[in-house]
Amino acid sequence: MTTNPMFNANPAFLDGTVKKLFIDGCWVEAKAGGTFDTTNPATGEILARVSEGGAQDIDLAVAAARRAFEGPWRNFKPDQRQNLILALAELVSKHYEELCILDTLDMGMPIGRSIQNRERVVGSIRYYAAQAMSIHGETIENSLDGEFFTCALKEPIGVVGAIIPWNSPLFATVKKISVALAAGCTLVLKPAEEAPLTPLRIGELCLEAGIPPGVVNIVSGFGETAGARLAAHPDVDKIAFTGSHFTGQKIIRASAGSVKSLSMELGGKSPNIIFADANLDKAVPGAAMATFNNAGQICCAGTRMFVERSIYDEFVARVAEFGSRMRVGNGLDINTQMGPLVSAEQLARVTEYLTIGAQEGAEAVTGGQRLTEGAYGKGNFVAPTVFRNVTDNMRIAREEIFGPVISAIPFDTIDDVVSRANDTIFGLGGGVWTTDVGKAHKVARRIRSGTVWVNAYNVMDPSVPFGGYKMSGYGREGGIHHVDEYLQTKALILNTD
Ligand code: NAI
Ligand code: MG
């Protein structure tokens, strides 16, 4: 591996001090005094020691969020909330490079890609700023006896608990904060234990932006302790969760005691369908990056690559060649196309699936193993992998691997591929590659998932809703639907006689 880091591996935020919890506008240590280390998955080096928030800290953060919600925050007008969100957008833009570096250091994302997404990330924050001034209910004509005025008001849902994963810490954090602020809610955010640094740095930016104490709280800690307490907390009105469906199910159960409102953005095993009439020069890199992007650690990754039989051999060979040529390495190197997996656990999970695939009879055309030579050995690197001879019932074709592993499956007809593409517990993403518009439309309509891309993959826009069918969850992020999920509807029936 050649590393030729172009980016500063020592941002000022990593100053050797213990990173504290952000509660009620202050930086505080965990009540129980615990800390945990967060490491660089490319090198194994410890980056920082982070306060380990537990149930007590979550309780303090929820109490602060409640006080802010019942207190000064409820008097903030939409334009004031908009200004705060815009101030946050400006600060994220100003410090964008540093935030990307923290993401790369903490979870491995190649900076060559993230650094190009400034407008997408900042634009998404600005989108919610606009939404803050677009909240409206409705007046309703009634048939009541007498003079009545009836309307439906929109109100913020209250205190929101946001639990996020590690695969895109910057983007996940700013989305969850901006939508809550737009709706007038307050928030307790629990970052993933694998990647808490960027969320904590954004806490500093919230303070600098002038967001009042208690409106945004960030409590780093583990899922089974801090996360579980947040999910069960009786004074939390809503949980917004992004992560695995297993954890999603636990959160649904934990929240049942207080009947919370929930939004669940869970995993996937998305089909990416390549027809013989596709523009293959575009479909090859498109299909490869549909999975290899972020080392496959993307919820909507197009990991089930269905290829029309007449081009199966050629197409699979070309995608494998693309994978074999990818520059895998430390994400701080601007030339790196694929970084490490986030953690030793994730490395173990993914390599286990590589073994399972081989045992099930699939053939790794490229990759198929961990990379251990030289500097690779210190990090969690896996080679971009393309399996052929995959059948629908193999575990590598059914389970979310969350690594750079493509399962290539041949198909014959539209009906055949649609029913097999839908034969999954998930329904998050999907792709169709063809030059026939009618075919594209027909297939896209029949795929049961929250997003379908045609001749593209992983393209997102803040105005366009994103979310799952089936066990990929419910609720939508992005678009006008997103803010609505942070609002309550109140009927007002006013006797005007
Ligand atoms: P996870 O779903 O367990 O973690 C996501 C978040 O949930 C983290 O903040 C974690 O601390 C929290 N959490 C964990 N247990 C909790 C509990 N009992 N109550 C409340 N919060 C809890 O994901 P993990 O363990 O990091 O990854 C395991 C697998 O999950 C991956 O291999 C991948 O297949 C899948 N995954 C999918 C994601 C997606 O966006 N679709 C994101 C992350 C993981
Ligand atoms: Mg976990």
TrEMBL record:
The active site is at E265. The keyword Oxidoreductase applies. Signal peptide: none annotated. Residues 27-491 form the Aldehyde dehydrogenase domain. Keywords: Oxidoreductase. Its EC number is 1.2.1.8. InterPro entries: Ald_DH/histidinol_DH (IPR016161), Ald_DH_C (IPR016163), Ald_DH_CS_CYS (IPR016160), Ald_DH_CS_GLU (IPR029510), Ald_DH_N (IPR016162), Aldehyde_DH_dom (IPR015590). The keyword Zinc does not apply. One of its GO terms (molecular function) is betaine-aldehyde dehydrogenase (NAD+) activity. Belongs to the aldehyde dehydrogenase family. This is Betaine aldehyde dehydrogenase. It comes from Paraburkholderia solisilvae. The lineage of its organism: Bacteria, Pseudomonadati, Pseudomonadota, Betaproteobacteria, Burkholderiales.
